[in-house]
Amino acid sequence: MKSRSVRFLTQTGLIAALYTALTMVLAPFAFGPVQCRVGESLTVLAAFTPAAVPGLTVGCMLSNLLGLATGANVAGALDVLLGPLATGLAAWLSYRLRRVTWGGLPMLSTLPPVLLNAVIIGAELTLVSPTPTGGMFLTQMGLVGAGQLIACVGGGLLLAKTIKKIADNR
Q: What does the alpha-carbon distance between residue 36 and residue 25 come to, in Å, rounded to a whole number?
């Protein structure tokens, strides 16, 4: 029993650290109105371990705090709250969809981060804009969704395929 909780905490910490490192190393692409967070490709890990749900949430919060501290995060303190909420909820939904596969890959698990971040972060970026409009929300939603599509579906499925290949060779 004890080793299971140690393993869970270890996986959670590693995922949080990896998400944060990927986001901060590629900060110019991770923050702003047009963003593609490579760390978001890790949301597919929720299809493989429940430890990814808190790991991704904490990693997103740390990234947004560091982005705020360094001035890279244009959405400010609001992103420290809404970003982890969107990522955590998306990771939880990805975990719930883990058994829906196509070609052995968790295809549906890649979609919650795209959809939730497009709506939540799109709304957040619109709210922090000096002149928010409905049209701006749709634009922000599309831009965030496109970045998430690249990271979560493209990068996430590549990661899932790699994990599956390694697991199949054991």
A: 13
